[in-house]
Amino acid sequence: MVSNEQRRRQLAREKFERQQQRREEMRRKARRRNAVIAAGLAVVIAAGATAYASGALGGGDDGKETSADATPSDLPTPTKGPDPCAKPAPGSPATKTWKSEPEMSVDKSASYAMNLKTTCGTIDITMDAAKAPHTVNSFNFLAAQGFLDHTKCHRLTGAEAGISVLQCGDPKGTGQGGPGYTLAEENLKDPALKEPSDPEAKKAGMKIYPAGMVAMAKTQAPHSTGSQFFLVYKDSPLPPDYTPLGTIGAEGMKTLKKIADAGVQGGGPDGPPNATAVIDKATVAKS
């Protein structure tokens, strides 16, 4: 039975999402209009514009983790921009999956350090097993299995998309991959999640996932967390449905900024990053 308060929040959230979609459509139309104007000046300068349609983290309803890196058919195919990162180390992503989550092996009272050695630099993450024991335990297992090695961070969003995150953790690199098992969401009332200043966002029950936070991607369905995660490089309003996993260290934020500053392929607000952001090696250790 859905309570009146739950129904009120759901209706407010749907209204907020419709407003965000209308704003993005207005931005898209403006970009197209500007592109037409710029095309008329092509003799003088080289100009143009492409755009991506933004989507929620994890997106679809098909039970799989997804992302919005597909280009709408009515827009040009995105081109690759300058790449500030190195070539990936030799190797291929893992293909093995598992039917159920691993047995609990982490110390639930301890902190764990996840180190992502990427082509763009190191991303250091501190995870609290007391707050998200199943999620931390999953990453401890997956890192030991080499599941994250040679995987690319497949999705970058910019301010125009409404959120500012880099999404990683998919061995397929498409937003469709995962470890084969799913986890229940955890730590959804983490005090690090802040109240939004936007009245409509607040009314819709949104929270601010702060810059420096790492959280888990999922579908709209509950118990759909897998291996995909997102790194927040600027405060981002989202429904409080995504497991807050940990925090990024100072070195990691520098690496994340390098990737974000390189932008999205084609210059849109949401899609594959220009930077070749590949996790060469992931390790997890008790800290």
UniProtKB/TrEMBL annotation:
<feature type="region of interest" description="Disordered">
    <location>
        <begin position="55"/>
        <end position="104"/>
    </location>
</feature>
<dbReference type="GO" id="GO:0016853">
    <property type="term" value="F:isomerase activity"/>
</dbReference>
<protein>
    <submittedName>
        <fullName>Peptidylprolyl isomerase</fullName>
    </submittedName>
</protein>
<dbReference type="Pfam" id="PF00160">
    <property type="entry name" value="Pro_isomerase"/>
</dbReference>
<feature type="compositionally biased region" description="Basic and acidic residues">
    <location>
        <begin position="1"/>
        <end position="27"/>
    </location>
</feature>
<comment type="function">
    <text>PPIases accelerate the folding of proteins. It catalyzes the cis-trans isomerization of proline imidic peptide bonds in oligopeptides.</text>
</comment>
<feature type="region of interest" description="Disordered">
    <location>
        <begin position="1"/>
        <end position="32"/>
    </location>
</feature>
<dbReference type="InterPro" id="IPR029000">
    <property type="entry name" value="Cyclophilin-like_dom_sf"/>
</dbReference>
<keyword id="KW-0413">Isomerase</keyword>
<feature type="domain" description="PPIase cyclophilin-type">
    <location>
        <begin position="121"/>
        <end position="284"/>
    </location>
</feature>
<feature type="region of interest" description="Disordered">
    <location>
        <begin position="261"/>
        <end position="287"/>
    </location>
</feature>
<feature type="compositionally biased region" description="Pro residues">
    <location>
        <begin position="79"/>
        <end position="91"/>
    </location>
</feature>
<dbReference type="InterPro" id="IPR002130">
    <property type="entry name" value="Cyclophilin-type_PPIase_dom"/>
</dbReference>
<dbReference type="InterPro" id="IPR044666">
    <property type="entry name" value="Cyclophilin_A-like"/>
</dbReference>
